[in-house]
Amino acid sequence: MKSALVKKVLGLQDPPNQHNKTALPHDTDPTVREWLSDGIPSRQQAGQYFVRLLPFLKWIQHYNVQWFLGDLVAGITVGAVVVPQSMGYARLANLPVQYGLYTSFIGVVIYWFFATSKDITIGPVATISTVLGGIITDIQKDHPDIGGPEIALSVAMLCGCIIAFMGFARLGFIIDFIPVPAITAFMVGSALSICTGQVKGLLGQTGDFETSTPTYRIIIDTLRYLPTAQGYDAAMGLTALFALYGLRSGFNYSAAKKPRFAKLFFFLGALRTVLIIALYALISLGVNHHRRDNPAFALVGNVPKGFDKAGVPVLRASVIKLIVSQLPACVICLLIEHIAVSKTFGRVNNYTIDPSQELIAIGITNILGPFLGAFPATGAFSRSAIQSKSGARSPFTGIITAIVVLIAMYTLTSGLYYIPKATLSAVIIHAVGDLIVPPNTIYQFWLISPLDAVIFAVGLIVALFSTVPNSIYATVCISVAVLLFRHAKAPGQFLGQTWINDENNQIPLYLPVDEPKADPNLKIERPRPGVFVYRFAEGFNYPNASHYFDDLVQTIYKHTRGTNAEIYTKKGDRPWNEPVSSSVDDSHLPILQAVILDFSAVNNVDVTCIQNLMDTRTQLDRRSTPVVVQWHFACIKNRWTKRALSAAGFGSWPLPQEVANEKGGGPGSEGSSSDTEKGMEINTNMQ
Description:
The protein is mainly alpha-helical. The protein folds into two domains: 65-484, no CATH class; 492-564 and 587-652, Transcription Regulator spoIIAA, CATH 3.30.750.24. Helices cover 56% and strands 6% of the residues. The protein has a six-stranded mixed β-sheet, with no helix packed on it. Strands 1-2 form a two-stranded antiparallel ribbon.
């Protein structure tokens, strides 16, 4: 039988007590029509697609009073926090503070329709606000006639369209190409940039310098203009900042000392921003009530009631041309923070988010937001943490938060007038300070992968000396380059055979022959002389095909001898690149008989790698002529891979009926083997 001959050539042995098994049926030849039909969704799949666009339809049917109570507490807490934070983030974006309130309202109202996370709250955040503020500043330098709100609303709508398209096209997996070191460098760089930029407002400095420049420049300018700091502003800012950190430490300490009241101390700690804003607004009211025209320190000023800027946003082609180059940075900022936050809380609270659905939520929010005057919004880390710890039970929490914001917009605007700007700067610094990771996190990067720690360091340096978006570009490019290099230079493995006991049977196992063994008593038998078993480590595609076969050919040349040393009758017939036979005696080395390629790590192949395989076959055949080298392929999982090998001349597939009958002859059939029974091997040049 042919299978018996194959075993003899390859030096394979049947394990003791190995029972014959019935062969599995072989796959049919794949077709282009089949490939196209697999890509076209069925009616059922199309229906499921549209149902998945509104996840709330599933959980709203089970909504109950207990869920509502949890959502009520969490919604009120987050609503109280988002009002002062959103005003501060609007100032980061160089916009009037009311735009922060508009953004915080529309984000939570829309998100719950599309949400796959109960903990995320969408609204203004520090990172995108900082990037947006830089865009507005740069454009207004050359075009002072273009207002900041128009730029902000245009950026929001265009980013929303891009992100919504990605979500509807189910491209959420793209976020997975941004690794953790890149995200961490982005968050830390953003936090440092924001904190240093807010020192000017914290101290009330009147020096003429910008806070949208690189971080190192902001630090230099802040120190240079330190004498311009205003005493009263600095007092309102620094004391508020110390009070915020003091309250947090005090409430955390009290919760640890008195576990019975831990929940109470948590809510007090979560509302510390509200307490400080209210306290300093009252102080400001007492100081400036009779001197509104000449306040002792800078105030927020008039905040219009309701949605004063609601209307159809205007998208002018001239403005779009100015912001189009900045859209990638804005889109990346919106995506990174939201997906990172949602995945984090999904892991903590044991549920899975749908990244594509989250993109739809962000996109729709930023498309509809400008109609109410909202600038770009995404998931907020600090407020999401508060919402999660406050006991949110469903995305309906966002509606409660929206009601709180709405009440503030219509009833508290007169009180918001007296909030000191320095106190808002303290709130911003306190909010983003937690984004700075501790040193032990970086040390953990170093322990896991030193290269990732280097990537983080590069990203942080770029963020400090250039811009935060450039930090993302740099770290992602480096990470992709490293990924491609690792894929292109993945080391293959030469395998040998050993046996493991499984009840009454012994199962063959193929392990690398040249790598250290975990069990020193484990004996790995090399294939018979002239036979090589080679496993691809990380796929088999055009980036790594040459590397694999260079390694394979080099090893084969080292451990075998050629038979064509004297086939040229004249010296001039020898090609210039073919070496003259060595004087070293290699007669003890075997002639190459067979190459077995393990495709267990291969999912797809392409023309380039198949061409490399064909070239290698030709090269080895010439060296071993007149012996015909046999090629065998094991563990092929993809039918298109089998079709590609067959098209390249490596056997025929599907197998002829008589061969299939021979291999699947049933129990007791002669020559059956575990490899061929599984239909995972293609044999060629069978003699």
